[in-house]
Queue: 3 jobs
Job 1
Amino acid sequence: MIEILISGGQAGADRAALDVAIRHGFPHWGWCPAGRKAEDGPIGGQYHLTETPSAKYFQRTEWNVRDADGTVVFTFGDRATGGSLRTIAFARKHGKPCLHISREHCYQPALDLQQFVELHNIKRLNVAGSRESKNPGIHLWVMGVIEDAFFWSENHPYTLGGPGEG
């Protein structure tokens, strides 16, 4: 299972991973642009992120892919675009496993994520994807997927099983 969640801190899918980690007292870290730049203003100090030398997003994106064992990219649509597409390209460049989870075409996202992590023996998972401004609601959806995948028993202490069970 994973030992740390990595993310760049952008509003949306990235920040969802960090918020899940904080909620569950789980280790998190990642590279963020110089100045802790994000679309909604500076990234808060509660997130354990290290600034890259550049304020450009592409550097933090590549460094997070490079320093992780694998990356998951979350989008609402079935095609990755913009920074999500660039993240996938960096995973290919660095020979890292990458999973694209689309809300539109993925019926068991938490189970798919668990299987990806297990198949590739991922300890350091980079979480990336759409910004909240481009896909309103993605933050909450990604939080739910990550929590169901890795924190099921904490969120559902009186139920047996987990995603894919039953």
Job 2
Amino acid sequence: MTHSLFSLETVASMLLAGVLLVNLASPRPAQANDALPPETNGIDVPQAIITITEVKTPWYALRFLLKSGFEKSLPEYTAIKGLLQKNYAIHDGGKFGGFYFWETKAQAEAWFNAKWFERVEKIYGAPGKVSYFTVQDYRSFAQESDIKGNYWTVIHRSTAKSAQTLSNAQGLFRYHAVTDAQTGQRGTISLWRSKEEAERYFAQVNIPSNELTYTDTPLLINHLLTTTAQAKQ
């Protein structure tokens, strides 16, 4: 008689372990009724605004020069009232700028005033662009260990057939669910540890590549982390 190498109990245990591994490998989508992260205490998230800036990059400004300029600007930007986060950005197409998370629209408009546009055009020889996005939700899944890194910011401009399902995927720090204030199109703006991890996630959940924009993000400002750390002391 031939005997099985595994008992029924062993097979059942192996099947259960396989199910658990599949569940762990599949990121859990953030739910609409999940509690907001503690760092948002005191912030009226529905009143918050995301702005994306695009400024012409000088022909001579290689990536290391842009990074150096970003670092020199830190004292100026960290002092801006109402600025909660900034992802510095090196956009495709010869543009640089940032993704700004503001406590209110009024504070964003106070910074991006007529003088800002005049100064940008005078220095860079072309008008700057500022796009506004209203914020429906904010979620954080991990904390970046350093303000400097090879981070990537991803814009997902979703269609009706592929609504965003961002979750606590590997390499995801945070996301904002947003609506384009001009077009009404919904989507997300998310921060990732690396471009590879972001690409892997969006491929896994079958998001079309033409809905995604990947932006090199070498430097961060995150006042929300500072606020959280102070509250714990």
Job 3
Amino acid sequence: MIKKWIFGFLIKNRVILLHLAFGRFRIRLLRIMGMKIGKNCIIHSKGFSTEPYLIEIGDHVAIADGSVFLTHDGSVWVIREKYPDIDVPGAIKIGDNSFIGTGALILPGTVIGSNCVIGAGAVVRGAIPDNSVVMGNPAKVVFKVNLMETMLTRHKNKLMTKNMGEYQKMQAITAHFNKTSNDN
């Protein structure tokens, strides 16, 4: 009885709780609500629908803030007077080692493969194959991850600053962009 009450409270108050939660606590809270989340994930999004237990996220997945995961079709509202109990839910699955960009919308029934990049603002529906970079509305595979890797490693603004301290990183980035702007 208490477990049902806690689950009900979490689901009804998920928007408030997810806005207050961050880091590992947010992941723990989503797991309590039934979401399956693998190891070594980063979840900044607070946009998980009314059925978080229909969402499965693999290992080493990063989800940017502003992304939304819809697990049901809200258009049933239009026919709800005729069918008062109708719902059309759909599970969502994200494979290992994937990234979901800011503002992406993941629709019910979507399966995103492993090693995928979902671009900012993409509206994703259906099956996305492994190793895909997906962008747009409607989202389409625009190229494979190996091409993205080549593009990023050859990019004029590629810097190796990820593990630097903040001050050292600021100096390196500032120096790079001062040099770049002086070259033009």
